[in-house]
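Practice problem: predict the structure.
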Amino acid sequence: MTSVELSAPAATDSSRRWRSVLLAAVAACAACGIVYELALLTLSASLNGGGVVATSLIVAGYIAALGAGALAIKPLLRHAAITFIAVEAALGIIGGLSAAALYVVFAFVDGSTWVLAVSTALIGGLVGAEVPLLMTLLQQRRRASQDLATDAGRTLANLNAADYLGALVGGLVWPFLLLPHLGMIRGAAATGIINLVAAAVVAMFLLRRVVSARQLATALCALAAALGVLVTLLVRSHDIETTSRQRLYADPIIAYRHTAYQEIVITRRDNDTRLYLDGGLQFSTRDEYRYTESLVYPALGGDVKGARSVLVLGGGDGLAARELLRQPGVGKIVQVELDPAMIELARTTLRDANGGALDNPRVAVAIDDAMRWLRAPHPELRPPQGFDAIIIDLPDPDTPVLGRLYSTEFYSLAAHALAPDGLVVVQAGSPFSTPTAFWRTVSTIHAAGYAVTPYHVHVPTFGDWGFALARRGEIPPSATLPADAPPLRFLNPQVLAAATVFPGDVRPRALDPSTLENPRIVDDMRHGYD
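Answer:
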């Protein structure tokens, strides 16, 4: 032990407590900072569709703002203590209000992009200012206590360790705790409150000997006022969110869930019930029978004689299962759905629409990602010879997460679960509104080793809507109805035969397939009609 260490019991208890509390504040602020960024990314996906471009711009803009904030704060480092409190107060209030502001602007003005950009710049800049301020405070305290054994390198190492640990905590808390239990608006507000409390702790316990009593009182009053705003938001967020959300939908909302996977909204006016996922309409009970019959029955016809087992990937609303249960001979239906909230709503709010299909003993529900489920053996659910039919009823591939479920790899996995003479049907989007995406899906299925018969029907709610019927091998399947099909409201042999004919303006195209490595279909969806 050196003489300096012996003469300075000063790295003393007081100094250690100072550093411990300040580093704890660093960790808390870092956690809040990463939560704000994740909230912005979640909002971008929920309000504007997200995607690689939007995500990249937010992340890049946030990191650039970190650097800009660190540079901008340099002139204020001589007043690091009071500046830190001011920065944390601003960060707490801006970050805490960001989700509510974005949601309200999106609902009432439809101009959330500029709010998203401003929020990213402000939050990133304030978070970037934190580290220089905290580093200055730590060094000032080290000099004041004559703790000569701790050099700047060790101080920076401690600061970085606390910062990164806090970021880890924030990265875990947002998807597993805040978002599923509080939602975006309340989750961001709760994070802002934590931010303000951390700043108040620093102010009360660490800065009372550094700043004047007047400055301290002013800082605490500012923090208390900001805290009051966020607590009010936390209490009133349900009213704000409900009012803003209802502005986005023409019909009254009767059910809402915001899960780790998506935003689910169900509306109803008179006898018309509608399901929306992330703002996109999935069906209307006025005409969903056209879509559902066209999706289900061709997969049970053709060369499939007496299909007994059917795998449904997606379709968590239970409508496909409802039609399958009407088909004589179908004895086993395996329904694979990612989101348990969708299954819960299908069994309650949508029960009249699907006839309680998911509670039928012939239906086995598996909560899992479709690709992950196909990769696992599941001997208790998979027939030894494979499923007689596979119905793939997934949302449009407008994000990379969904794009992977429209890849050659995904359809190749589906082939392993299919009986040798079984049929696959895929909802493939609109050949009129998104023709490139439609024919990309057909080409991708073909590249996975299937012979494909595309077809399309008119669904008034959606317009022209397309499907792809496929089987392994080189001979395309015939688009026919099963001989023992029950009475249908829309589909008949003549309608189905006409459905395989495509006019010149939506004529077939041969395109490169979409793959996991190059999800071309996601970009196709962004371009829409061309």
